[in-house]
UniProtKB/TrEMBL annotation:
This is MATH/TRAF domain. Residues 1-39, 655-675 are annotated as: Disordered. Residues 54-184, 213-349, 368-504 form the MATH domain. PANTHER family: TRAF-LIKE FAMILY PROTEIN. It comes from Arabidopsis suecica (Swedish thale-cress). Residues 661-675 have a biased composition (Basic and acidic residues). It holds the Pfam family MATH_2. Residues 1-33 have a biased composition (Low complexity).
Amino acid sequence: MKKQISSEAMLSSSSSAADQSHPSISSEKPLSSSRDESGGAQEIVAVDRPGEYTALCRWTVESFTRVKAKALWSKYFDVGGYDCRLLVYPRGDSQALPGSISIYLQIIDPRGTSSSLWDCFASYQLSIINHVDDSLTIRKNSWHRFSNKKRSHGWCDFTLNSSVLDPKMGFLFNNDSLLITADIMILNESVSFSIDNNNEENSVVGSMTDVLSGTFTWTVENFSLFKEMIKTQKITSPVFVAGECFLRIGVYQSVVNAQEYFSMCLDSTDTEKSVLSDKSSWCLFSMSALNQKHGCTNMNKESYGRFAADNKSGDNTGLGWNDYMKMSDFVNPDAGYLLDDKAVFSTSFDVIKEFSSFTKNGTGNGYMGKFSWRIENFTSLVDLLEKRKITGLYIKSKRFQIGNRDCRLIVYPRGQSQPPSHLSIFLEVTDSRNSSSDWSFFVSHRLSVVNQRSEEKSVTKESQNRFSKAEKDWGWREFVTLTSLFDQDSGFLVQDSVVFSAEVLMLKETSLTKDYKEAGSGNSVSQIDKTVKSSFTWKVENFLAFKEIMEKRKLFSKFFQAGGCELRIGVYESFDTICIYLESGQSAGKMWIIIYGLSTRWFMKVSDMLEADAGFLVRDTVVFVCEILDCCPWFEFSDLEVLASDDVQDALTTNPDEVIGSEKSEEDTFRQVSP
């Protein structure tokens, strides 16, 4: 299986500059070309038609500098059976920057119907012609799928009107006339859509529900007309329904390792402009270029992922292949993929039927919550994976948020081992707001496969870890055996559904590192003229939420740098005592670190820390400070000397891992895995 990629990264299309559909056109009526009704403008429209689905419209607007009307419309002209016209706003429309000219192409159904079932794909170029120097002509290209809801497309800021209205610039001619052109190509296409779960078939796709499995076929009858266009832009099919999403096929051309490839992807789009941004569907799909020669093999590739109309939730807006097949193979007439200028593309899909809920703990200030996820038709999904011999497939849940961070469950229905023996489950935590690589969150999580007959028999595993960009998902490869999961008497699989849950508690924390120099004075390192002093402050703002966890597991800060070494503070509770220690990650070179202060002491009684008037715990917040003098690079880190009281030295002899020794067998099965 080829690796799936985001279609947003596949193609840098010029359409983004033109992706400005006009919101108010649908209610406007066409103006005639008479002087009175068009605000003092006269027009001449000439249309050249090289073919049935192509046209070059030349629209001359006379007395353009004296136009008083807010907007002008050209006469309608036919392209590929659709009525087209141009719209110009001499002083810009409501979306334009001051001083701009707005120009749009509008296409409507010639039948005059208000039905939402018609649409057409068009590639077009709009131009304002310079009659003195053609190189100064303003040209802009784009593509769009026009429909009853999206009838107009173009640029609100096409160009500044000051340059166009200046007689010296060469745009005006013959008594202040302006020539606007539109070069238009219409895709000659047809579609069919078969829904596997009820065998309905529709030539045009509308809004449906519970479409979980089906096949969408898209036939393009004039592909060569768009052969040059696909080098820079994408051709997209009409949309079809898959679960909660509207999907469409996209095709274009890419260059991979200096080789030209025909590329194909599956895109998600929001046709309803819904305010609900959490709609998404996990989909297993295959994409095919059909071979039209009898007995020849189709080109077919498979992939999977969670689709959504936008990527705000971290979902995919498109998945596919830049290197779907060599371009030379696709256009070769003997190969059968492009025959008599016709190409046929198809996608088959299976969407999981799922239900999820998320509840935040009222006392957790948004940093604690429980997510439940039910997957139905689970046996059918596993059987499908086995039938297609798909290994390593994982399903990501919908997003839920803890502490304003994005969380998901990741499930491998057939596990990660071969042959399949266990179900694998992981928790993913990401920070979509922070694109840098240094984000880090400490998370306690309890994952479960819920026993739907007896909840106390649920399989539950718990751990605490620090999630980061490099280690964003933690869980268990061997969570529960597939044998027990599919045992009809076990209670995990009920009415062919499996329920997963995640209880998540996230540390609310901030940290600050300071590095500065200080001259040595009357202490044991006074012989060193200068030292580098590092200070690390770790502020925990929901300390009590982790008190029970610290009785058996350690709580630790993010790593900070001190003299080329990675260090972090660790905290745990042992025998009613708060223990604090410093541990290193991967040290760099040789060094001698002297620790001379922690503001909360090295250890103290839990009761003393929690005392209301003591000042250590204020509004559920505890602040830890570590100050380090870093010097003498000829000592190994293992020769660490601590200048502290005898009590502090005794505290350091306590091994923080001893408090979790009883759970080492579970930790042996716990691994971080990036799917």
